[in-house]
Design goal:
- The chain has 232 residues and is mainly beta.
- The chain has 2 domains: 30-130, Immunoglobulin-like, CATH 2.60.40.10; 136-231, Carboxypeptidase-like, regulatory domain (Immunoglobulin-like, Sandwich), CATH 2.60.40.1120.
- The chain has one helix at 2-27; strands at residues 30-38, 49-54, 66-68, 74-80, 85-92, 113-118, 127-130, 136-144, 153-160, 167-173, 178-183, 188-195, 200-206, 215-216, 223-231.
- The strands form 3 sheets. Strands 8, 9, 10, 11, 12, 13, 14 and 15 form an 8-stranded mixed β-sheet that branches. Strands 3-2-5-6 form a 4-stranded antiparallel β-sheet, with no helix packed on it.
- Strand 9 (153-160) and strand 10 (167-173) form a beta hairpin.
- The longest helix is centred in the first third of the chain and has 26 residues, at 2-27.
- The chain is elongated.
Amino acid sequence: MKKYLSFVFLLLTSFCADISVFGQEEIVPHRHFTGYVKDSENNPVAGARVCGWDKSGRPINGRIPCTVSEKDGGFSLNIRKWEGDTYYIFVEDSEKGYPNPMSALYEDSFRKKQTIDVDATNESKPIIIQLGLKAGKAILKIVYDESGKPVEQGQVKMCRTDNPEICQSLSTAFPKGVIEFLTPDSPVILKIELWDGNKWKEWFATDENNTLIQTIHVELGQKKEIKIRLKQ
């Protein structure tokens, strides 16, 4: 009898689970998109992060479904299906020089994104995303001025020169005092802050000639190594 009841319990549990999964599929449907990421010369870009950004005013606004492009540049992305919603599909790959185009720090020349409408069907033609310009890459080697020892942790802040209110911060560990980041196609204001135990405090960044560094500029597609000595 006990074996029989156990069997019935397991059967009912399995049945309920199936109903629950079925119900979720009905309540939270998705639309399937496929496409390819290509560079400015029409070559496939592998390993790029492909994301969908919801432009609507729904509560889901800002939730970012993402995937990674394959060797041939192909990608497959599932997006929650809401009637009438419009999404940006955008690509970023910091290793290859493509910044996140949704960041206000980067100008329109980097904003290569495509809009798609999510409707009631699941049919979609492949999307071709053509990447634009490659950003510059700044490589900062940061040491304390007095000791010459590497600064292992801090916060680097970049702000646009034409609008200093638009900034991007990188708060992270600096392995052996080195940090790399992508720069826009115009100079940016550079600020370096260290945590003093209570708050972030800005330090003076100087070059090897003791000249104050206030802005940095790296040409598009180029790398620049900058040695920085920090002073209080």
